[in-house]
Amino acid sequence: MSIYKNLKKASIYFILFSLLLVGCKKSWLEEYNPASRTTDNYYTDPVGYEGLVTSCYPLLRDITQQRNLTIKGTDIFTAGGWGGIFYNLPNQTGNPLDQYDARFNSSNGSLQGLWDVLYREINRCNAVIGRADAVIGMDATKKTTRVGEAKFLRSLCYFWAVQQWGDIPMPLVESVTGSLDWPKTASKDVYAQIITDLTACVATLPLPTATDIGRATQGAAKFLLAKVYLTRGWNYNNSLGGTAADFTSSLQLCDELITSGLYPMETNWNNLWPVHDKKVTATQPSMAASVAVANASKEVVFAVQYSNPAYYWGDGNTNPATGLIGNNMHSQFGEGPSGVAQAGGTTQFYSKLQGDGNKPTWAAYRLFDPTLDSRYEGTFNSISYATVAQTISLINNTYSQNISLTYKVGDTTAIILPWNKPVTLASQRGKNVLGGTKNYSVSNMSEIVGYAPITPTKGVVDNMLWTTPMFWKFFQPGVSYNDGFSTFNDPLFRSAELYLMAAEAIVKGATGAKSGSADVYYNKVLDRALGLNAGMNPNRAANPALGVDPITNIVSYRATPANITIDLILDEYGREFMGESQRWYDLKRTGTLIARASKYNPWTAFGLTGAPVISAIHNLRPIPQGMIDVTTPIMQQNPGY
Questions:
Q1: Where are the domains of the chain?
Q2: In whole angstroms, what is the distance from residue 143 CA to residue 153 CA?
Q3: In terms of Cα–Cα distance, which of 82, 83, 85, 80 is closest to 97?
Q4: Under 8 Å CB-to-CB from 267, ≥6 apart: which residues?
Q5: How many CB atoms lie within 10 A of CB 56?
Q6: CB 204 within 8 A of CB 151
Q7: How many CB atoms lie within 10 A of CB 221?
Q8: Are 258 and 495 in contact (CB under 8 A)?
Q9: What is the rounded radius of gyration, in angstroms, for the C-alpha atoms of the chain?
Q10: How far is 226 from 253, CA to CA, in rounded Å?
Q11: pLDDT at site 349
């Protein structure tokens, strides 16, 4: 915010005039601190120290908006379109985060971006922890709570970092001077420190209250500790110090949170997301009203705050009008509406894909039962409506018809049918194809990369084709086109995951479950998604990666004691948490990154010229080159890079 905002115009002119008179005298160039404020004296009183603690929270926004390393290159998202490799077109090149080729190396900007912001947060938390004893006049219990918050946030950052890079530097004191020596700490010791800190947090952090919404609580600490134990139990590469007992520790914490009653799952899965109507002419809630229910959900154990900017001020990516950072999840996934009869960049109803983009794979759609599972239509909008009046001509279509079609606002312009209910008759198609009778395009899910080409190098010309359903799980009405200023709080932890973590732990041998076998926990999440269809058997495609496969080739994804496996649980993680920035961690933890990405991600399967190159080295990321360049002794690069 400009310091001149509240000054009268005459006062500003006077200041500028005075500057001209004094010129560049030495006294104006010398540093002068009239309040004698320094970090050493400002953070010693309750007001200053509270400000230091609060400053740790906005950095979570910057960290969680670094999605490239958590979503791309997995089984359900790619960085870009994959029609070219589907049609075997020559000279196809995708994003290195998907292809895992030599271009994904220590110079990749996503690596440096995430590394830097994680360590900024760690250093800020270290300042809170290290300066606590010097704070005078602060209630002792509150001070202990604030230190617990910092330890929770530091643990979260170290947990993310150690999963990405393995052995990493682990400073536990504030860095106030430059240093070239950043020795690595073994992964097992990082996990041990995280567990020590979180165990202390569980003992000192309060239960959730209506005050200080968004701060770390005992529940958040237990949730994170459960996930840390679960991850250590898998003991990646025998490097984490994990044992089978970790799975039981994880299960115990999950059960404690589930049975506490503090975090009940929403009855309706859609209550977790902003309210939005498909049809632009329908009455949309206001920007604030659209997220009121979602942001207040008790299912959310911990969320990155965007609706409470007065308490958690942003650090960048700010709205120039308000100075506040906003959530950009609504613009980072999927596609926009049909290109027919749209208002383009001026509409606030349809926010089109922006930034680097995260596009669902075929498997992402075909893991759902679109008929029974409410999460399918809650995640994807498969129907597009006109937002402006327009007349279009079909004279240049490959299947040329010398006709024009006129749309008014609210008319249907395109539909993409679910994979299990394809259109079979030409008469059920739009007039853009031969024999079609509808005034809107009708496509099958197997055609979302375009109609089959007439030849391997020539596609179909169709100015009515809608290529991909909108990924609109996070869409918030009232958010202007092409900005990131949503007020939807990003839910990092929610209790549905507790049930799936418990199921995973039981499959891995955890004992002492309070609710039964692994399938009982799993089906709790599934039946919530099925709603009125609870208890039924939803079916997914037996071969999700195949866009063209008989629709009778299906398999149920209801769990039973006989069929529950890690793969079944990972499918459910994918359906329930699609786009929530944890997929890479799920695959890394369970040792399934190579197998599932190679099977379901078209670019990973393609690799280089049709030969996959993903391998065991990709379970860790390369240390950013910018870090290696400034360390003495030089920080050792991860193996294989």
A1: 9-41, 334-483
A2: 16
A3: 80
A4: 528
A5: 25
A6: no
A7: 28
A8: yes
A9: 27
A10: 6
A11: 53
- What is the per-residue DSSP string for 547-616? SS--TT-EEE----TTT--HHHHHHHHHHHSTTSS-HHHHHHHHT-HHHHHHHH-HHHHHTBTTB----G
Task: Report the SS3 class of residue 407.
Answer: strand
- DSSP secondary structure code for residue 316 in this structure: S
User: Residue 521: what residue type?
Assistant: Y
- pLDDT score, position 34: 56
Residues contacting 448, CB < 8 A, separation 6+: 362, 365, 416, 467, 468, 469, 547
Task: Using alpha carbons only, give the angle 280, 492, 360 rounded to the nearest 5 degrees.
Answer: 55
The rounded distance, in Å, linking the Cα atoms of 219 and 207 is: 7
Q: Tell me the two tokens of residue 371.
A: 């008929």
Nearest CA to 494 among 304, 287, 228? 304
Dump pLDDT digits (tens) for 349-393: 555 444 447 999 999 999 999 999 999 999 999 999 998 899 999
pLDDT tens digits for range 105-134: 999 999 999 999 999 999 999 999 999 999
CA-CA-CA-CA torsion sign (49, 54, 58, 63): positive
Give the tens place of pLDDT for each residue, 205-234. 999 887 778 999 999 999 999 999 999 999
Q: What is the pLDDT of residues 74-91, one digit of tens each?
A: 999 999 888 888 888 888
Tell me the per-residue pLDDT of 552-580, one tens digit each, with 9 for 90 and over.
Answer: 999 999 999 999 999 999 999 999 999 99
pLDDT for the residue numbered 323: 57
- State residue 350's pLDDT score: 54
Question: What CA–CA distance (Å, rounded) separates 293 from 273?
Answer: 8
Give me the DSSP letters along 191-239: HHHHHHHHHHHHHHSPPP-SSSTTS--HHHHHHHHHHHHHHHHH-GGG-
Q: How far apart are CA 78 and CA 68, in angstroms?
A: 10
